[in-house]
Write a structure and sequence with these properties.
The complex is a heterodimer of chains A (221) and B (292). In chain A, a hairpin with a 5-residue loop joins strand 1 and strand 2. The radius of gyration of chain A is 17 Å and the shape is globular. In chain A, the strands form 2 sheets. A 6-stranded mixed sheet of chain A has the order 6-7-8-3-9-10, with helices on both faces. Chain A has a 4-stranded antiparallel sheet with strand order 2-1-4-5, covered by helices on one side. In chain A, helix 3 packs parallel to helix 5 and helix 4 crosses helix 5 (140-152). With 221 residues, chain A is an alpha/beta fold. The longest helix of chain A is centred in the last third of the chain and has 16 residues, at 170-185. Chain A has 7 helices and 10 strands. With 292 residues, chain B is of the alpha+beta class. The chains are: A alpha/beta (221), B alpha+beta (292). Chain A binds chain B through residues 49, 51, 71-72, 74-79, 81, 83, 85, 89, 91, 93-94, 102-103, 105-108, 150, and chain B through 1-2, 5, 197-198, 200-202, 204-209, 211, 292. Bound molecules: adenosine-5'-triphosphate (ATP) and magnesium ion. Adenosine-5'-triphosphate binds at residues 11, 13, 15, 17, 35, 37-43, 86, 195 of chain A.
């Protein structure tokens, strides 16, 4: 489903963020990517949606190499992936509804469809009553849930979550983790990058550990 | 993304662009208004010119002493030059008839007139009006010719005037067109700029190029088409005043009135040009600021 084959990423300023990374994640799996701050977790996830391209090596998503695809093919790759960004990337000028609806507009769904699906997903993340609020009025945890809703609303095959419990108190954090597990239970491949080791140890899932851009463990399928 | 959605996003962007929208529309409306005026005046001067050309002839009046045979032979030799479209011999009697036809309502005047006071003449029309002076020169040298008259100067003057209007018009329209494109370019660029963050996010969640570009392109086209339309409303309003003005200036020359069809044709052409102009401005802005 997701395969990294000898992948290295060196940024243009010379930072070697990832070096010689090899692993594969099967369809339907729930995997953690852990490591200290600056280890390269976000960089790794960005490579999967081709926000960044690897300097060396090859990456496969659904058996297709995404390293050599044309720019024109990038949107369809991104549409099958839901991405919960570490910094949320919510649009301040749009309401919660509009932010979440954006994902569906991009895939070309009709108005009625969008209204139903957004209502449903906001219900799932427990934000129904904030549907018409603007992000600037939301708490950190609420923003995080909007980001999750936006990543989920189109029912992607793959969900990438970058530090999804970062801004949340432990109790709410657990709710989010349960939610991610539930989504995984529906057949979605879930990849969670985090340095919250409590969460990791409580769930008996595979943990791909990276440190200073190198794979430490978790390579095996 | 369907048409309704693009339209919705476009209208939102247009509203958000506020003053830039106003500037774009004003400048483009002016461009189309001026273009329309020049198209109309080019159309009218073309009609006037054709009329003058059709009337363009050299007339050689012959002395009373000239024999009909020698006039006829002059006619033949002119026809052999290949420069003439038509040479008509008007005898003294025919000239009288023509005169009588023009003054039917004045019997007193006609009573006292006989064919002897009218000179016989040759009316010569050239294939190309540029050859009129040559023909006039030839006629002046013919034995028995009293006077040679032709309209060359009127036509040349009018042609010059029409050309000046045409070139000045083309230049002005060109400059205004360029300014229009620039204004749209600036407006769309700033619209793109103000939505930078949104564009980045839309890209990351998988929006296609055209999903992102569409509304900006539509915005430019909307300015162009809207301006063309507004300018035609103004033209429609002043047309009833222009027409009598030209008719008065060129009295005696039949200028066909503008029909609904001509106005609609002009509107159609300008709408197309509006769309092209707006699209062109938008595309430059998109190429500059939305590179992948
Ligand atoms: N665009 C960039 N250009 C240059 N260097 C970068 C860029 N993005 C990240 N880096 C560097 O790459 C390394 C890995 O960063 P990354 O964001 O992947 O770490 P992370 O594991 O997600 O950290 P955190 O847990 O703090 O989010 C860091 O040293 C970072 O400074
Ligand atoms: Mg990170």
């Amino acid at each position: 489903m997701i395969v990294f084959d000898n992948v290295s990423k060196k940024y243009s300023d010379g930072t070697l963020a990832l070096e010689d990374i090899n692993f594969s994640i099967k369809g339907g799996e729930f995997v953690f990517i852990t490591g200290p701050s600056g280890a390269g977790k976000t960089s790794l996830l960005k490579l999967i949606i081709r926000e960044e391209t690897p300097s060396l090596g090859e990456i496969f998503v659904d058996e297709n190499s995404i390293t050599k695809i044309k720019p024109k093919e990038v949107p369809s790759l991104r549409r099958k992936i839901g991405f919960i960004f570490q910094d949320f990337k919510l649009l301040e000028s749009l309401t919660v509804f509009e932010n979440v609806a954006l994902t569906l507009e991009v895939v070309g769904r009709g108005d009625k469809d969008i209204k139903d699906a957004v209502g449903e997903v906001l219900n799932l993340v427990g934000l129904s009553e904030k549907i018409n609020s603007f992000p600037s009025l939301l708490s950190g945890g609420e923003k995080q849930r909007v980001a999750i809703a936006r990543a989920l609303v189109h029912e992607p095959k793959i969900l990438l979550a970058d530090e999804p419990t970062g801004m949340i108190d432990p109790a709410t954090g657990w709710e989010i983790v349960n939610l991610l597990e539930k989504i995984n239970g529906w057949g979605t491949t879930v990849v969670v990058a985090t340095h919250n080791l409590d969460v990791v140890s409580s769930l008996n899932k595979r943990d791909i550990k990276i440190e200073k851009g190198r794979l430490v463990s978790g390579k095996k399928i | 993304m369907n048409f309704k959605k693009v339209l919705g996003v476009t209208l939102k962007n247009i509203k958000r662009s506020g003053w830039s929208t106003a500037t774009s529309v004003i400048v483009m409306t002016l461009t189309f208004f001026v273009s329309s005026l020049f198209i109309i005046s080019a159309y009218i001067s073309n009609i006037v010119l054709r009329h003058l050309e059709s009337k363009a002839q050299v007339t050689a009046f012959f002395k009373d002493s000239s024999a009909e045979e020698s006039i006829i032979s002059t006619k033949k030799s002119l026809e052999e030059t290949d420069l003439t479209a038509e040479v008509v011999y008007v005898s003294k009697e025919e000239a009288l008839k023509i005169y009588m036809g023009q003054h039917k309502s004045e019997p007193l005047l006609l009573e006292s007139i006989s064919s002897s006071i009218f000179p016989a003449s040759l009316d010569v029309r050239a294939k190309n009006i540029k050859d009129l002076p040559i023909l006039a020169g030839m006629l002046e040298k013919v034995e028995g010719v009293e006077e040679v008259v032709y309209y060359k100067d009127v036509i040349a003057t009018f042609q010059k005037w029409a050309d000046t209007v045409k070139y000045a018009g083309l230049f002005l329209v060109g400059v205004l067109g360029l300014i229009s494109i620039l204004v749209v370019l600036v407006t769309i660029s700033s619209a793109i700029h103000s939505k930078k963050e949104e564009i980045v996010v839309m890209r990351l969640i998988g929006a296609s190029d055209w999903h992102i570009r569409g509304p900006f392109l539509a915005q430019g086209i909307f300015y162009g088409v809207g301006s063309a339309f507004i300018s035609m409303v103004f033209i429609g309003a002043i047309l009833p005043f222009i027409y009598p003005y030209f008719n008065n200036v060129f009295s005696g020359i039949p200028i066909p009135a503008f029909t609904v069809f001509t106005v609609l044709a002009l509107l159609g052409i300008e709408l197309v040009f509006g769309a092209l102009l707006g699209a062109f401005g938008s595309i430059i802005a998109l190429r500059k600021y939305l590179k992948i």
